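Troubleshooting: if your tokenizer reports a length mismatch, compare your output against this known-good record of 148 residues.
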Amino acid sequence: MFKRISSKVDPDATVAKEIRKEFGMYFDQATNSRNRFLSAYPKQIFIGMVALIIISGIVCFLVLTPDQRQKEKMPDFFKGTTHVGNEVTDGVGQIIDLGTKISDLNTLRKQVEAVLAKPKLTHADTLFLEKAILQLEQSNKPRNQKKP
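Known-good structure output:
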């Protein structure tokens, strides 16, 4: 039941190669007839392309222009997006501020750990620890005030 099936598939075979192998003569016929048509009527094809460009411009700019009533009915896709740029820059600024606060708190934590690792604390160490506690309280204050 779990016998492996081996197949003799060409590893270089792709879908495009197989389609080309199967329908290649039709592709060659279409290419040849296209090339004969293009070489037989080059001026007419160029004139037709220029005419289509001119007709497209006329239709686009003169025929299908919406009048004032249709413009009022059209939805305003840009309504409410005037402050998005400010919100994005404010958000990026907040992320940068948060990153600097985190790095400052990380250095403060390392300094506190270094002071606490000392076997004996001096008066300067005690003052430093008190300032560190005040800084930690100040860094937690805005976060606690924002959550009502």
